[in-house]
Design a protein that fits this description.
Distance between the termini: 51 Å
Oligomer: single chain
CATH architecture of the largest domain: 3-Layer(aba) Sandwich
Number of domains: 2
Number of helices: 14
Mean pLDDT: 89
Radius of gyration: 22 Å
Bound molecules: zinc ion
Strand content: 15-25%
Number of strands: 19
């Protein structure tokens, strides 16, 4: 169960955390191996039992659900099967934002008994949730390439050979490296990490040097980082170390990126579907037939605009129910804003997990300054993460030296008097931050908007758009 904050800090200080957590971690690995094998009726029974438990738990312990379900006139007893799930109302990102922290945290957990995780700026609307120890352990175990990519398990002998004899690192993650990022949660749990985390906001040249020096067996990063690394390696003619597998997460992986990765790394790329609110949801099959949903941990509904489940093969809005996290239960959450298509039948690889194709993921372009320096999109989006009452935003580089920032306010009563005007406190603070990141090479203008315009035919909007052509 949840570890007390003080104990956790003491364990970390002494390095004993690695010993203490090795036991639950090994246990979780075995548990995940069992869960990955569930299929047919067994899987369904497991899902329904967990579903009933988490719904009852949320009603009894989390204010948001207790209040919302009572208002809606539903009770945990109304949901006995997965088909009953649609009786419950949808939970939105605004529900989480308004309820943070107390109304979305289970009263069983104090702030010190669980981890706080937040969006990395890629989604355009900042959100924070709480994650409990058990749930974090599950995602940690699931990040093993044998589950994610169907690779052979890492044996003790191989770990010794690769990491001690050859001095390669097992995993390298190039992610947002702050204390709220889900991706760095493991670093917060284990002090001697088997992961090397590199900050994604560093320039591509540093990423290239790190990859080639540490020679990771597995590389996990955002599509935007990978694209910049490939382009920079090609431009400078550097030969890249070849990892066994590269995983991407976050933004969409397009065919162009796959080609770039093949040319640069001569290795395979697997896309994964993960979100700060849920951890891993699905991972691309090594046969590239779609993404396998970890359906023993996340129930995925695909809904039409009326809230009805779409048939297989048709696009629907992703609504997810998490079957594990108790610190902030997420039941029928639509806040990811993603659209996906479910494929009929099982994959030719034989894994008993349903297949999904993601349609439009998060989109974020890098910004290239007039000096030629590249700025990763998340350094800009993260600068907006803690701006109060900012509901959505879009950063648009319209010329090399001109960026327009569209800002959409929360529609709550507290947000009524708030102004994002350039002369106000908030506006000045945004302009100062952007000036520092962009070395004042770019003229930045703020514009308060009613909504972010979408391209025709698109359901999502990009958080950072660069209209400046890049080779
Ligand atoms: Zn498969």
């Amino acid at each position: 169960m949840a570890e007390k904050g003080i104990t956790r800090r003491l364990l970390k200080l002494t390095g004993l955390d690695n010993v203490v957590y090795a036991v639950p971690y090994t246990r979780t690995l075995r548990r995940v191996a069992g869960l990955m094998r569930l299929e047919g009726r067994q899987l369904q029974e497991f899902q329904q039992r967990r579903l009933r438990e988490i719904i009852r738990y949320a009603y009894d312990n989390v204010e948001l659900y207790h209040r919302k379900w009572r208002q809606f006139g539903v009770h945990p007893d109304d949901v006995q099967t997965i088909a009953d799930l649609k009786r419950l109302p949808i939970i939105t990102k605004d529900d989480l934002r308004e309820g943070f922290p107390d109304a979305i945290r289970s009263r069983e957990f104090g702030p010190e008994d669980c981890f706080t995780v937040g969006t990395s700026g890629s989604t355009g609307t900042p959100v924070r949730v709480f994650v409990d120890f058990d749930k974090a352990m599950i995602d940690f175990a699931l990040s093993e390439p044998r589950y994610m990519g169907g690779m052979p398990p890492i044996t003790f002998r191989r770990a010794v050979r690769d990491c001690l004899v050859r001095r390669n690192v097992m995993f390298m993650s190039i992610f947002v490296n702050n204390e709220l990022a889900y991706e760095t949660l493991y670093a917060r749990m284990f002090s001697l990490m088997r992961h090397t985390v590199v900050d994604c906001l560093l320039p591509p040249a540093v990423h290239i040097a790190q990859i080639n020096a540490k020679k990771p067996l597995y590389l996990h990063t955002y599509a935007s980082v990978l694209r910049n690394v490939c382009i920079a390696a090609r431009e400078s003619g550097i030969k890249m170390h070849r990892p066994k597998l590269i995983f991407t997460t976050g933004e969409v992986t397009d065919p162009h990126l796959r080609t770039l990765v093949k040319e640069t790394f001569e290795t395979d790329l697997l896309d994964s579907y993960a979100a700060v609110e849920f951890g891993f949801i699905a991972c691309e099959c090594p046969r590239h037939e779609g993404l396998h949903v970890f359906s023993w941990k996340a129930l995925v509904e695909l809904l039409d605009p009326k809230g009805e489940e779409v048939p297989d093969g048709q696009a629907g809005r992703v609504v997810i129910t998490d079957l594990f996290n108790r610190a902030t239960p997420l039941i029928r959450y639509n806040g990811l804003g993603d659209y996906a298509v479910r494929k009929t039948g099982l994959c030719s690889c034989g894994r008993p997990l349903p297949l999904l194709t993601r349609l439009e993921g998060r989109m974020a372009d890098s910004v290239v300054l007039p000096s030629g320096r590249m700025v990763h999109p998340y350094s800009l989006t993260l600068a907006l993460e803690d701006i109060p009452h900012l509901n959505k935003f879009q950063i648009r580089q319209e010329r090399p030296d001109y960026i327009r920032v569209l800002l959409v306010k929360d529609r709550t009563r507290e947000a009524e008097g708030v102004s994002f005007a350039p002369g106000g406190n908030i506006g000045r603070s945004i302009l100062t931050r952007f000036g520092e990141i962009l070395n004042d090479q770019v003229n930045v203008e703020l514009e308060t908007a009613e909504d972010i315009p979408r391209k025709p035919g698109h359901r999502k909007y990009a958080t950072v758009v660069s209209l400046v052509q890049r080779d």
